[in-house]
Amino acid sequence: MRQLSFKQVDVFTARPFFGNPVAVVIGAEGLDAAAMQRIAAWTNLSETTFLLPPTQPGATYRLRIFTPRQELPFAGHPTVGSAHAALESGFATASNGNLKQECGAGVLDLTVEEQDGVRRIFVRAPEPKVSPIEALVLGKVGALRVDVGPIWMVVDLGDAKSVDALAPDMPAIESLSHEFEATGVTVFGRTGNAATPIHVRSFAPAHGIAEDPVCGSGNVSVGAYLRQTGLLKEFGPSYTARQGMQVGRDGRVQVRVSANAIQIGGEAVTCVNGNLRLD
Fold first, then answer.
1. Is 114 known to be catalytic?
2. Is the predicted pLDDT of residue 110 greater than 60, yes or no?
3. Domains, the chain, ranges and CATH?
4. What does the DSSP assignment read for the chain?
């Protein structure tokens, strides 16, 4: 009987069952893409990842990322959660607090920050490609299409109450996602709370994910939106976003935005340790 080590990790939280879960299969070099896709459909989480030996010079490990329907070149919470699993399992070791993850988007820099017994992992996201969307499409002036591997149509709803109250039309979002070759729609609004000044929600029905609990790439895209539009001055170059309350989660994503880089990160906690039976 063939088995592979498996972890389920909650990301952007220190409390089990409050972040965004990712399934991580460790040492998956014996699996082909079709098998990986079947496993991702079976876990039915927003993403399932597979840790592999690196193929690029300088990379610490290779990561493949799958939604229930397709492979992604990059995704934020799977990157942070998989790095947590790689370190915890001994599959990878940080060098001077640094990891290099090989994935479909290239070799990405991760940093591991430990203070007072708390570990936070940050990833420098691929440089966003930003383009406007006509106001008539999403009904909001200034909507942007942001490509960080996953592609989000980002909309500023003004305040967190509008974000909270949003009842999205999933068939319409799925249709728009196909039309604009996008992953889905990410919306945000201001909370008035200095600790977590931005509230975010992300919807990706075209990928089988009605609402992503705490979306790393969505938060990268919001950071890119703020930088592109000049709104970043409201929040400063480093802020914490909240996400997930509408689906019973309460994640916290730390976002760092500069002129030439966007980083996201936070804590992670393992909720499941086990093995996958393959035959």
1. no
2. yes
3. 3-124+266-277 (3.10.310.10), 129-260 (3.10.310.10)
4. --EEEEEEEEES-SSTTSSEEEEEEES-TT--HHHHHHHHHHH-SS-EEEEE---STT-SEEEEEE-SS-EES--HHHHHHHHHHHHHHTS---BTTEEEEEETTEEEEEEEEEETTEEEEEEEPPPPEEEE--HHHHTSTT-EEEESSSEEEEEEEEEHHHHHH----HHHHHHHHHHTT-SEEEEEEE-S-SSS-EEEEEEEGGGTEEEESS-HHHHHHHHHHHHHHTGGGGT-SEEEEEE-GGGT--EEEEEEE-SS-EEEEE-EEEEEEEEEE--
